[in-house]
Amino acid sequence: MGARKRLMAERLKEERKSIANAKLIGCPIPPRKMRLVADMIRGQEVAKALVVLKHNPKLASNYLEKLLLSAVSNWQNKNEGGDPDGLYISEIMVGPGPSLKRIKAAPQGRAHRIRKRSNHVTLTVDKI
């Protein structure tokens, strides 16, 4: 490895040290409903976001709360047990996952298709 490449790799490694990710794959809630809760905590500090998720009655908030705690834990492992004060949610993305296709009986011998949607969530925390 050349000197420039090594210096660039070291600089990128140092920049990524303050960032931690967590992923939730195949959550059985439709992406549209998950985005409603994700939009409430996007860009907030971790402590404030945890309070919002704790007191939100939607089912999606339980999944996002566990995901946020996982991201904070990942950040602490990456930084040798550093203090999580000053962490904020820098990025949260909700994308579609696989859909389960089911059939519901309809009048006159017909059938309607039901799609049970799921989603994938990626959450990134960063130091202020």
Characterization of this structure:
This protein is α+β, with helices and mostly antiparallel strands and 128 residues long. The chain has a single domain, classed as Ribosomal protein L22/L17 (Ribosomal Protein L22, Chain A). Helices cover 42% and strands 31% of the residues. It is built from 4 helices and 5 strands. The strands form 2 sheets. The protein has a 3-stranded antiparallel β-sheet with strand order 1-5-2. The protein has a two-stranded antiparallel sheet with strand order 3-4. A hairpin with a 5-residue loop joins β3 and β4. α3 runs antiparallel to α4. It is elongated. It starts with a helix and ends with a strand.
TL;DR of this structure?
This protein is of the alpha+beta class. It has helices at 3-16, 31-41, 46-54, 59-78; strands at 19-27, 87-96, 100-105, 111-116, 119-127. The model has no long low-confidence stretch (mean pLDDT 94).
Key features of this structure:
single chain; 128 residues; alpha+beta; Ribosomal Protein L22, Chain A; three-stranded antiparallel beta sheet; two-stranded antiparallel sheet; 4 helices; 42% helix; elongated
